[in-house]
Sequence to fold (129 residues):
Amino acid sequence: MQKLSKLLPVALLLGFFFFGLDALIQSKPSSKNERVYKVVQQYSPYYLDKRFGGLQILSRNDPDFKEKPTNTTIFKEFERLEKEWGKKHLKVQNNTLLILDNNGSRLAELPLQSKEELLFIKNYYGVQP
Fold:
């Protein structure tokens, strides 16, 4: 019984450590291609805003849009909204990324310089060339 009482604090410590590590890994945002993401982010309606309790997601197009997910899920929710927007407003033609407005008119064009950028567009936003 004494051996069990000596191992219990160590087991609890390891359990809490692994639980915290798992939460950290799950809340981490996915990696992005910096050049392409910076350009696309300028046209995306969603952005993160600081608030007293953490971060919130706001929209440039809709002043009533406001999402306040928990701190562990904020980046996943933000990515979900970006991907949803990207499927409707991004298009790839001849190794050029076209950024479209709500009516389908071109806002901007970005020539893709490498295969990694094309793969990022395909994997992150779900846009097929």
